[in-house]
């Protein structure tokens, strides 16, 4: 009888975990302002270390959440202020296997932090750059460095 109870508990925990993941994804999609986005925070090993996720625009922030995570907080937040695009390229080498062919990789410099690379669909880049270049009234935008 003890085995049956433990099996029931395990099944219940698995169902709750799947339910949380499905609910989390449904909330992101319904809220709008969400894009598919891969991030590589450590650029020490070329062409490796990409993580899939969802990016969500919230005011002056782009919040990135891992797809396979129970965390309710973003893993990475890119603030529009001070963010500069320093490079743009297509996936090459090993990246061609982990990223879709029509995606673009943008190198982003952040003040006081290590450079981060983000990858998104070519069609999404235009919207991202529009968000990045738009500035509050009275502020001059100089966000695109060497594209």
From TrEMBL:
Pfam families: DUF2550. Keywords: Membrane, Transmembrane, Transmembrane helix. It comes from the Bacteria. The chain crosses the membrane at residues 6-27. The keyword Transmembrane helix applies. The keyword Transmembrane helix applies. This is DUF2550 domain-containing protein. It comes from Catenuloplanes nepalensis.
């Amino acid at each position: 009888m003890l085995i049956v109870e433990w099996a029931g508990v395990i099944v219940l925990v698995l169902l709750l975990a799947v339910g949380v993941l499905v609910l989390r994804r449904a909330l992101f999609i319904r809220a709008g302002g969400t894009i598919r986005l891969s991030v590589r925070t450590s650029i020490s090993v070329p062409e490796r270390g990409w993580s899939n996720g969802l990016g969500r625009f919230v005011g002056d922030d782009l919040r990135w959440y891992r797809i396979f995570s129970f965390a309710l907080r973003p893993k990475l937040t890119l603030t529009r202020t001070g963010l500069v695009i320093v490079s743009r390229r297509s996936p090459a080498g090993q990246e061609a296997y982990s990223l879709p062919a029509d995606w673009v990789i943008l190198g982003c410099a952040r003040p006081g932090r290590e450079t981060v690379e983000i990858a998104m669909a070519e069609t999404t880049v235009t919207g991202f750059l529009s968000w990045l270049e738009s500035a509050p009234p009275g502020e001059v935008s100089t966000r695109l460095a060497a594209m």
